[in-house]
Amino acid sequence: MKPKVTMIAWNQNDNYVVTAVNNHLLKVWNSSTGQLLHDLVGHADEVFVLETHPFDARIMLSAGHDGNIFIWDITKGTKTKHYFNMIEGQGHGAVFDCKFSPDGQHFACTDSHGHLLIFGFGCSRPYEKIPDQMFFHTDYRPLIRDSNNYVLDEQTQQAPHLMPPPFLVDVDGNPHPTKYQRLVPGRENCADEHLIPQLGYVATSDGEVVEQVIGQQTVDQDEPGLEPSILDGMIRQLQLEQDQRTGADPESAPSGPQNGEGTPRRG
């Protein structure tokens, strides 16, 4: 197998460069001379997370798809600390990202099961108010390109950045209660009826049909006592202003969906 570099990171003072290779080794190099200093052995799968300590130039963190999280002393080429992300009843969880806190006393990781892993000092009580699993319902939605080569969400045919804020769901796509939906930026002050997602049946890649969040609940504008979504109105206004700036005729533009799904598509 021809070795390939999957990730690269400089240490805090730029004296060393650490590369992750697809043969599961980490290599420490002198950044001035290019000399190989150490091979760091420990990972059993590919590594896509290399994070330097915010002020200690000796320390580098690595994490990978094998669920292992290592703290290395790259000046000595030694392993300082090791954690393994074991999930009861499900094996290990691949670690996708990691960041140190500004003071260097804590670090947080996210894994393939939607968990946020926080390592550091103290108790975990402040973090117990959030669910065990958190994903956005749009996280794994496929994207397509239109005739102008712009990216669109395949299901709604809208630009992802113009879609309403996504809903929080668990690993199986089941939406969390409304109190958690308010944690999503853009939904802090939404009315309760706008925090209830619309469920539908979606076919997966292996042909299985599952119930998932497909968008925001339809609001009947004729029903007394219900107001249209403020967020959707703002998005439509932004689209209208963009059309006017580009010289498009808003009267000739195709009308958008009326169920709070997002903005009208441009011709």
TrEMBL record:
GO terms for biological process: cytoskeleton organization; regulation of cell shape; regulation of transcription by RNA polymerase II. GO terms for cellular component: nucleus. WD repeats lie at residues 1-39, 40-82. Gene3D superfamilies: YVTN repeat-like/Quinoprotein amine dehydrogenase. Residues 238-267 are annotated as: Disordered. It comes from the Eukaryota. Transmembrane segments: none annotated. InterPro entries: Bromo_WD_repeat, WD40/YVTN_repeat-like_dom_sf, WD40_repeat_CS, WD40_repeat_dom_sf, WD40_rpt. SMART domains: WD40. The keyword Repeat applies. SUPFAM superfamilies: WD40 repeat-like. Keywords: Repeat, WD repeat. PANTHER family: BROMODOMAIN AND WD REPEAT-CONTAINING PROTEIN 1, WD REPEAT DOMAIN 9. This is BRWD1 protein. The gene is Brwd1_0.
